[in-house]
Each structure stands twice: as C-alpha cells, then as structure tokens.
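Model it.
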Amino acid sequence: MSHTAHIPSHRKPRRNASKTAIRSGVAGGVLSTIALAGAAAPANAEPVTETIEMPTLTSGLAGSVAQSAAATQQVAVDLELRAQQDAAATHAAKVAKKAKAEADRKAEAKEKAAAAARAKAAEERASRSEERTTLAASSAGSSTPASYGTTQASGSAAAVLAFARAQVGDAYVLGSTGPNSWDCSSLVQAAYRQAGVDLPRTSQPQSTAGTQVSLDNLQPGDILYWGGAGSAYHVGIYSGGGKFIGAQNSGTGVVEKTLDWDPPSGAVRLL
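Modeled.
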C-alpha cells in the first residue's frame, strides 16, 4: 500500500463537458465583441461630453400649488359663510324668543286687566244690590205716597218716556250705550236726547243736572236716582203711576217697575 493512500484526494470534480463548452463559447463571444469595438474606434477618439437636458417640472408644480391655494381659500370662505349663517340663526332665535316673551307678558297683563275689570263690575253690582236692599228696608215703613205725583206725560216728557219704554227688554251691559244694550245712565242720556237735552254720561252728575224734587211730587220724565245727590250709583226715569223705567242690572236688563220694587233716594226735574 502506498504511504499516501490514507490521505483524502483533493482533486476538483470534473466538470461536465457540455457546460464547459457553453461557458467557453459565451466568454469567447464577449471578448470578440469587445475586440471588434476597440478596433472600430479611432485611436484618438475623445470621451463623450454631451449634456442631456431633462424636462423641467416647474410649470406643472406651480399649477398644482395654485390649485391647492384656491381650494384652501374656498374652504376658508365656506367656513366663514357657515359661521355667519350660524350667527344669524342664533340672533334670529334670540329675537324670536324675546318677542314671544313680550307677547306672553302683554297677553298676561291684558288678561289680568280684564279679570280686574270683571271683578270690579261684580263688586259694583253687589254693592248696588246691597244698597238697594238697605234702602228698601228703610223705606218699608215710610209714609211715601202711593200716587207719587202726576201720572200723565205730555210734551218733551212724552218723547223721553216713549224712547225709554221702547228699550224695555234690552240687555244691561255696564259701559254700553245702545242700541240693543245699555247701562243705567246711558239709557237716561239717550232718552233725554229725544227732547233735545244733553245730559252728562254718568249717574253722579245726572243726579244734580236739574232741580231737586220730592218723591211725593214726581212728574213723568223726572230723573230718579239711588244714593246721594252728586254721588248717585244708579238712575232711572219716572214714567208715571208710581212706576219707573231703568236699565237695572245684567239679570233684569231694561225694565219698567213700580217704585216700591226698588225705591229711589231722590229725584231731579229738567223738563
């Protein structure tokens, strides 16, 4: 046995013959191409120094920037417009709320005033009824003559009574002046206007508009009053035969009644 038999072989594996031939051919072709190029080039050829200009992007970039700026400005304008619209809507809502509150306040004040007027009217009616009851009670035992003076009307008194009697059955409404509803003094005023006499509107001055006469010497057309002269709270017209015509209250309206139904306090004569 050889003394090198135990040493592993370091030989390279043999290459495949076909692969070696292909690689040789490729290498040869490349070298041939380089050789031909070198032979074709002039010996004194200078290196190429030509500069190739690349297209500029400046114009396109400027356009994009301009469009972006315009878009940003439009967004800002839209936001400002929206803010103005929101502010206007808020202001309008505040104005509407204030107007509603003012309208509610006025309506409440009006209702309170109407309620106060109704309460006052009811109080006046109650007071009048109480005073009449008191007067009726105090005069129940009096010696007031049953005839109450003259019973026949003539001249201007007849015109006054004709008008007043034509309104019997109309409604009593405090403050009303006809033609279908009256209060006590407006009926007396309108009746006397038929005789060409212009009376004050309310019962207080009507109770002192003429000459004071006693209740036992009444004549048709005399003004009767309830309460004191100058402070009367009710008036009517003596119609003769111990009767009177008057717009009494909302329960009776305009009536013709006997004096003992609601005895008056006094009387004045104008005719």
